[in-house]
Structures are given as C-alpha cells and as structure tokens.
Amino acid sequence: MIPTQRAHRLVAALAVPALFLTAACGSESGEDKGGDGPVATVSGKSGEQPEIEIDEEAAVAEETVVEVLAEGDGAEVAEGDYLRMDVLATTVEQGAELVNTWRTTEGEPSQETEDGAKPQVIAQANVESSLPQAVTQPLIGQQVGSRVQIEGQAGELLGPAAQQVGLSEDDGVVWVFDIVASAQVDPAGSVEGEQADSEDGMPAVEIGDGGPEITIPEGEDPPEELREQLLVEGDGPEVTDGQALVVQYTGVTWADGEVFDSSWERESASAFQIGTGSVVAGWDETLVGKKVGDRVLLVLPPDMAYGDQENGGIPAGSTLVFVVDIIGAA
C-alpha cells in the first residue's frame, strides 16, 4: 500500500491481478487486426490533450490495434520499465472517459505545481501495476516522447477490470499514451552505503535481510512536527516535482512500532508520482529534493499523514515512521 493521500480512482479500479489478463499484441501496419483498422481518429500535439473522434459505423477489431501517432527520440521502452505518462482513455460505444491526466474527475484542468508538474500515470511496461498488463504491453519498443494509440476490446485490454468500470468484454476502448519518461530499475534493489546512526529522539534503524527493522524510542512521545534524517547519502540525480519515484519502504506506527506495510516484505519496489499530491503530504514535502540512492528516515505527524482518518487498519491520528530507499526516478 503506497501511502496515497488520494488516488486516480479509475486507474486504481483498472489494476487487476496479472493472472487473469492476456497480453495483447498490435501491428502498426494494420495487418492481422481482425477488422478494418482503428475506429478512432486521434488529433492534437503530443503533450496536449488529444481529441478522439469515433467512427460510429466501424466495428472494433477483435485483436488489439496499435498506432504510433508521433515518434519520440528518447530511449526505447523495455519490459518492466517504470513509465511516467499522460493518458487519455475512453470507451467507444459510450464515449465515457476512463482515465484523463489532463483533467480532474470534475472536468477541470489538472492543477500544476509551480514547476509545471501535474498528476500523471505511473505504470510498469508489460507488468501488472497501476494499469493492466495487457494495455502497456504494446508500449514495449516504443521510444520515450512518443504518442501511441492503442485500441481494442475491453475484455482483452482490461480483463476482469472491464466489469468494474461497467463494460462488457466486447466493448471498445481507446487509449492514447504520451510516454513522458522511463526508468530501468531493479524492483528487488535497495540503497547501498554506510548508514548514519539515528539522531536523538528518532527511531533506531537496523537493516536486515528482510529490510529495515525500526525501533521506536522507549518512553518517547511522538514529535509534533515532521522530522526527517538522511541515513545514507546517494550520488544520483536530485528528485524534482512530478517525477516517478521507485522506492523500497517500510512503515510502522509510532504507537506500537508494528509494521503496517513493507515493499521489502513484498519483494518488489513501489512506484508513484512525487510532488503532485498523489501521496501523503509528508512524502511530497521530504522526498522532493532528495537524490536517487538516498535512504531517508521520516517521522510524519498525523497532519502530514492520514490525519483523523483511519486508513487500511492504521488508526486515525497516527504518527507514522518510514524508512524509504530511493532506487530510481523517471
């Protein structure tokens, strides 16, 4: 459970177990599409919200259709790459938006930070993540900076998630991806380097085979203000607003020191966007400006975490402690 303050509701609904999905394959040439080609015409410049026009007389092909609308000049996307993307997805029959990073769910333009960053989708290519595996499989081999149209049937591209958003298996869906950035990161990796001792009043951290062991100072009341400490200093690039971060992390509550979540225990890193309100405020405030390769100890008072809301078994009003390894960014 990435400590999200809010989530892309429809993106979250579309994330389903990889076991139930069938990888899709496409063709830029139009061969073996099982139909006459795409039913949607996409216009607009890369980086701007695309316009999608549906041919109401055409039938959606049985096999997924992939077209590169604008070719980028960045690195080729490889399987497992962590991708940061702008995305517009819509249904063919109903014309209903499933995902739109250019606008909020209320239809307003997405709010940008002072540095121009706005909420985007973070997903792994051909790996079950925040998007179904099948819909990102055709992005393998595409170049960063490209705009790619993917069109097919909901059952093929979304799997069981089609029902979650009210679609039948043969309903058509159109996706337009602007691939903004990518990173190749070992999802089992972690930070290396000499670790500093915890400062006075901060939890002790020992790194074992299964990740950090965090010990809350005995008899200490939780701090009222956010506290952070750099335990291991990395030498990678500085993290900026809007980037996709790939991290290992363990979280405990100050009250009992019990682990409520750990990517190390899942044996797979987590990825999210930083600096755009996609995660709890304490992460946005502390991780922007850190470097890839840093290990950070964070103590978040309730107002920088989940406040007076219970979340996933974490009691309302909890002070949270995290150890975060920043292992990649895109």
From TrEMBL:
Signal peptide limits: 1-23
Top enzyme class: isomerase
InterPro entries the record matches: PPIase_dom_sf, PPIase_FKBP_dom
Membrane-spanning ranges: none
Recorded catalytic activity of this chain's protein: [protein]-peptidylproline (omega=180) = [protein]-peptidylproline (omega=0)
The enzyme's E.C. designation: 5.2.1.8
Keywords: Isomerase, Rotamase, Signal
Coiled coil: none
Molecular function as annotated in GO: peptidyl-prolyl cis-trans isomerase activity
Keyword Heme: no
Keyword Isomerase: yes
Domain PPIase FKBP-type: from-to ranges: 242-330
Region listing for Disordered, in residue ranges: 27-52
Family: Belongs to the FKBP-type PPIase family.
Name of the protein in question: peptidylprolyl isomerase
Upper taxonomic lineage: Bacteria, Bacillati, Actinomycetota, Actinomycetes, Kitasatosporales
